Amino acid sequence: MGNPPRIVSTADVSDEAVIGDGSSIWHLAQVREHAVLGENCIVGRGAYIGEGVHMGRNCKVQNYALVYEPAAIADGVFIGPAVVLTNDHFPRAVNADGSIKSADDWEQVGVTIEEGAAIGARSVCVAPVRIGAWALVAAGSVVVKDVPPFALVAGVPAKQIGWVGYEGVKLEPAGDGMWRCPKSGSVYEEVDNTIRKVEA
Question: In DSSP terms, which residues pair with 79 in a beta bridge?
Answer without folding.
Answer: 61, 119
